[in-house]
Amino acid sequence: MPASEAWARALQEIDNTWALTAADTAILRDLGPNLGTSDRQDQSRYLQMAMKQLEGELGRAEELASKNGRLWRWLGLLGGLFLALLLL
Question: Are 61 and 24 in contact (CB under 8 A)?
Answer without folding.
Answer: no
